[in-house]
Design goal:
Shape: globular
CATH class: Mainly Beta
Structural class: mainly beta
CATH superfamily: Porin
Number of strands: 22
Order of helices and strands: HEEEEEEEEEEEEEEEEEEEEEE
Distance between the termini: 73 Å
Mean pLDDT: 89
Largest sheet: 16 strands, antiparallel, barrel
Number of helices: 1
Strand order of the largest sheet: 2-5-6-7-8-9-10-12-13-14-15-18-19-20-21-22
Length: 472
Amino acid sequence: MTKITKTVWVGALLMTAQLTLAQQITPVDTTAPKPKPVAEKNELKYNLNESGTHFFKATFLNQAWLQYNQSNPGTTVIGVPKDNTFSIGLRRTRIQLFGQLSDHVFLYLQFGMNNFNYLNGGFSQTASSQRKVQAFFHDAVAEYLVFKNKNYLNLGAGLTIVNGLSRFSAPSVATIMSMDVPVFAQATVDQTDQFSRKLTVYARGQVGHLDYRVALSDPFPIQTNGSALPSYGPNSIFALKGHEKQFQGLFMWQFFDKESHQAPGYNTGTYLGAKKVFNVEAGFITQKNAMVHVAAPGDTVYQNMNLWSVASFLDMPLNKEKGTAVNAYLGYFHTDYGKDYIRFNGAMNPGSDIVAAQRPGGLGGSQGNTFPMFGTGSVVYGQVGYLMKRDLFGADNGTLMPYVQAQIANYQRVNNTLGVYNIGLNYLIKGHNGKLTLDYQNRPYYEPSSGTSKLSAGGRRGQLTLQYQVFI
């Protein structure tokens, strides 16, 4: 190697060493801005335009129940009398798909199942493979927004829960404060509708403080509800003959914040302090010749179904810094289903009711956890809950929200005032996205009165339920 070549190599090595040393001792610029942490996304949403005003979104909901029930007298479980039951089930499993496809076009679909326990929604000694037919379309509705970027008037049609009567006639079940909704407010559920949904055309909107919806529905014949047909008698039933349209309306005056108006018809249960809401409301449902009874041999009487309610709803923060809030509702319901109408019902009823003859006086359907949930008369319903401070158990460990509920009814066919009471506690792990709810219900059970078709309270029973909800 020549002297020149050696000199070049030595120079190159020295330069490399200097560069390496310089890189090692170069001070770090502590004033440079640090990258911001990526915010958590809390929804599955695909934007169809850059601004995000056109989008399509998916949500998923699962509500699992563990239920211990003190049985009503005469309760059987697959032919064996039971004084109490423990059951596991899915109260609701749902998928929602919806989106604002353009400035004027909105699409909403919901698919899922309800009340899936060991009886898979109902027991039959002759049916087979019933446990595989529970899921169905709850909603399939298209909407046209008449005014761009305004909710003054939206026109819609399809299978929808857009209902009159009250906010709880079309509840957003993923956001309710209590473990379950007051089902009596879904007045014709699974009688002349599909789990509160009907084939409907409607108009809805918000103008100033007024939130309104009016609807014309095409109810299903009761012959298609999957249950044994009721018999004509002195007490009203849904008519087995004729077909009339149903008219509905709900009007809410919003004193403070406007409520969400995106999903057609659905009303939020609680905003967990994110909004300041106080509303008064009035609603109705009416249908000509919807009910029928026999007044005397050969004298068949058809009656209109007329239901209306007035109510107030409060959901607002108490201390924004701490995150505390209150939720309250009080409503009066006038429920006219015709002479002496009564219907027993119970959420996730664990009684199989295969030997109805064990209970005289037409009380075969009163087994398990049922009570006269629907009837001709009047109902007062109220609830109140308190959201405790944010991060009650430490950062990201959630908080608690206790509540109480009461449904007090006077029905024509029931001798005593009916009172159903619930007390519960929500553990909000991540708001409504992940929560545990423990609920205790105390309800009456009924016996036939001697010599009449009236019902009298025979005593009371209790039910303890633990729900785990996951929602995204």
